[in-house]
């Protein structure tokens, strides 16, 4: 992980949120011993706390992995949240150190300053550029409708469609971070170094 994450105030916030969850769980354990207590409402509150921590962790890691390469991680996060809520399928590559040309079949040049609304507009279903991956470099949307290499790894625990296999395929070959929004479920994830992570943006 990038070293500046150690000083990130988001990390402290995440730590205190996790500590609150632990305290709540310990309290529930004690209450379980008391026959007159019903824990069902506790579980609901716990699950809300865990969701908040998950979302905070997503912002934390996105900032860690991207802040050295783009100032637009908040726009990217905002865009992913909106795409996810609308269930607009998307594939977004953020270049880091490695060159991407050897791995990507180029699509349509855009070369525009990145904003969340412009990025969202690319993935409107049925739009001319919605198929394939958008490429971001620095603070710019470089191009859209790029084709990525697919992973050849067989992922046994879950069935992965081609959008997710394309995200994994590129991140196995270079250090780019590749964000996926599933059209089917609206769930967001990102791929880095050949791993796929759930990316809870709320
Ligand atoms: N090699 C590729 N490079 C870039 N984009 C790709 C590639 N393969 C598939 N896609 C994109 O993924 C879309 C198809 O996604 P598919 O439904 O097969 O995958 P999925 O992982 O199940 O995603 P979803 O959950 O959104 O359905 C294509 O329409 C295209 O936009």
Describe the structure.
The chain has 202 residues and is an alpha+beta fold. Helix 1 packs antiparallel against helix 2 (40-66). Helix content is 42%, strand content 18%. The chain starts with 8 loop residues before the first helix and ends with a strand. The mean pLDDT is 91. The chain is built from five helices and seven strands; from the N terminus they run H-H-H-E-E-H-E-E-H-E-E-E. It has a seven-stranded mixed β-sheet, with helices on both faces. Strand 5 and strand 6 form a beta hairpin. The longest helix is centred in the first third of the chain and has 27 residues, at 40-66. It has two domains: 4-67, Helix Hairpins (Orthogonal Bundle); 73-198, DNA integrity scanning protein, DisA, N-terminal domain (YojJ-like (1, 3-Layer(aba) Sandwich). The protein is elongated and about 65 Å long. Adenosine-5'-triphosphate binds next to helix 5. Its EC number is 2.7.7.85. Catalyzes the condensation of 2 ATP molecules into cyclic di-AMP (c-di-AMP), a second messenger used to regulate differing processes in different bacteria. Probably oligomerizes. Keywords: ATP-binding, Cell membrane, Coiled coil, Membrane, Nucleotide-binding, Nucleotidyltransferase, Transferase, Transmembrane, Transmembrane helix. Residues 11-49 form a coiled coil.
């Amino acid at each position: 992980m990038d070293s500046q994450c150690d000083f990130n105030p988001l990390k402290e916030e995440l730590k205190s949120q996790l500590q609150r969850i632990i305290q709540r769980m310990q309290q529930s354990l004690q209450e379980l011993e008391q026959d007159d207590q019903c824990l069902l409402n506790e579980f609901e509150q716990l699950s809300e706390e865990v969701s908040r921590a998950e979302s905070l962790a997503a912002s934390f890691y996105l900032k860690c992995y991207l802040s050295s390469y783009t100032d637009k991680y908040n726009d990217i996060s905002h865009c992913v949240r909106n795409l996810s809520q609308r269930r607009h399928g998307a594939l977004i590559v953020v270049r880091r150190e490695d060159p991407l040309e050897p791995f990507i079949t180029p699509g349509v040049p855009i070369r525009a300053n990145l904003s969340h609304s412009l990025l969202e507009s690319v993935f409107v279903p049925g739009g001319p550029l919605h198929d394939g991956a958008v490429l971001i470099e620095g603070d710019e949307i470089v191009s859209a409708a790029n084709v990525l290499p697919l992973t050849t790894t067989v992922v046994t625990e879950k069935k992965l469609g081609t959008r997710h296999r394309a995200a994994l395929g590129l991140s196995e070959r270079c250090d780019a971070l590749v964000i996926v929004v599933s059209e089917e479920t609206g769930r967001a994830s990102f791929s880095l170094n050949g791993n796929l992570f759930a990316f809870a943006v709320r």
